[in-house]
Amino acid sequence: MTDNSPILQKLRSGLWDDNPGLVQLLGLCPLLAVTTTFVNGLGLGIATLFVVTCSNILVSATRTWIRSEIRIPMYVLIIASLVTCIELIFKAYVPALDRTLGIFIPLIVTNCAIVARAEIFASRNPIGASMLDGLAMGAGFAALLCAIGAFRELIGRGTIMANLDMFFGGDPQTGLVIVDGGFLLAILPPGAFFSLALAVAGKNYLDQRRKKAPKPGERIHAR
Amino acid sequence: MTAGQDKQIAPKVWASGLILGTLAAICTALVAFTYSVTVARIVANEQAYLEQSLAPLLAGIAYTNNLSESTLVIPPPHALPGNGPAIVYRVYAGDEPVAALFVVTARDGFSGPIKLLIGIDTSMSITSVRILEHQETPGLGDLIESSKSDWLTQLDKTSLQSPSRDSWSIKRDGGVFDQLTGASITPRAVIKAVKATLLYFEKHRDSVFAVIPPPQDAATE
């Protein structure tokens, strides 16, 4: 197994074993609020991925200056500037998506998953590793946002990947219409909690099944 | 705390301040740079979005002026729906006023304010109505959005003469307008706001098109 290569291990940790949303349960406020459609999840996922990667790079680059008593203001300063930048970039290049995501773009500042990566990883590790950590954790968070967004859109509206034009331009697209209308509850707030609960339960189920029957050569994750 | 400890701490505080200050300068530079690169596109996007959202209300009306430059802000108190300033885009063909587009806020929706864009031509009939912002329940109240249902189109071409003033309400309240299944508060708020805007325009038509902002009149609600 190539499982032992550090890059793959890191990616695996971000996407699955230590997924910020599924396992660490961080950043749930935007996760629950925004994921009414796939394209919303994708938009916030990409924005968060960008911010967490850049903030990890910057925190790691300045880690020799960081003093423990002012580290939190430093993280906040770095993250807030990056978020302001990405908000401006969204307004300039994907205005329709910016209008849909609205306040949740500025609120990335308060996503505790990002401060957590700065504190736990980037402030103690070199730039390359921190960048990889940011990419892996951001990708894990983005993947979860997309998955929950797609699930809620399918159940709640009966479509998959509608309005992708908000991101990529072009004509308005309705996506794949499976059924007309849908089960409204899925796009209301309770649906967000149910969807997340199903995702966490599904992950734990898969992990447990794998632990019971480990394939030869695969390492067992004891947690 | 002794004087000796003070002396030890002071340099640390200065160093921390210096680090934070430097970092703040770097971060500000980063934001300033991004702003300078994107500002032109952002302004262009906002104007395009404004024109794009106003255009459906002006279907079939020939006009010549730049809408974003004909903005009139009516400060509160005014008789229009909403407590904040109301925005009016005045539409001219040459020097002749042909229509006015009102941005007003209905405050009596089911959840939160409903921001409406109401087009009225100079013969005092509605050209069209659009919902700009709302937080109504998805699947019920949000059917007022023209992308979700054609409920709003029943307001096209209406005026205070047709239907008559007394019939300007939803059917449940004895009027002529359809309500939405499972949601009557939202449609009621929209119809009420449109009627109030028509009444305002009828009374203040000349001052809306005057160059000077219109005289303020006390809220009647």
Radius of gyration of chain B over alpha carbons?
A: 25 Å
**H/E series of chain A, N to C?**
HHHHHHHEHEH
- The helix fraction of chain B, in percent, is 25-40%
Number of strands of chain A: 2
Q: What count of domains describes the coordinates of chain A? A: 1
Mean pLDDT of chain B: 84
Chain-wise SSE layout:
The complex is a heterodimer of chains A (223) and B (221).
Chain A: H1 6-17, H2 28-34, H3 38-61, H4 71-93, H5 95-101, H6 112-120, H7 127-157, E1 159-160, H8 165-168, E2 176-177, H9 189-212
Antiparallel strand pairs in A: 1-2
Helix pairs in contact in A: 1-7, 3-4, 3-6, 3-7, 4-5, 4-6
Chain B: H1 3-54, E1 71-74, E2 86-93, E3 96-106, E4 114-121, E5 126-133, H2 185-209
Antiparallel strand pairs in B: 1-2, 2-3, 3-4, 4-5
Structure characteristics:
heterodimer, A: 223 residues, mainly alpha, two-stranded antiparallel sheet, 63% helix, 2% strand, B: 221 residues, alpha+beta, 18% strand
Protein model, in words:
The complex is a heterodimer of chains A (223) and B (221). By secondary structure, chain A is mostly helical. Chain A has one domain (2-212). Chain A contains nine helices and two strands. Chain A has helices at 6-17, 28-34, 38-61, 71-93, 95-101, 112-120, 127-157, 165-168, 189-212; strands at residues 159-160, 176-177. A two-stranded antiparallel ribbon of chain A has the order 1-2. In chain A, helix 1 runs parallel beside helix 7. The radius of gyration of chain A is 18 Å and the shape is globular. The two termini of chain A are 21 Å apart. The mean pLDDT of chain A is 83. Chain B has 221 residues and is of the alpha+beta class. Chain B folds into two domains: 1-58; 61-209, no CATH class. The longest helix of chain B is centred in the N-terminal third of the chain and has 52 residues, at 3-54. Chain B starts with a helix and ends in a 12-residue tail after the last helix. In chain B, 25% of the residues are buried.
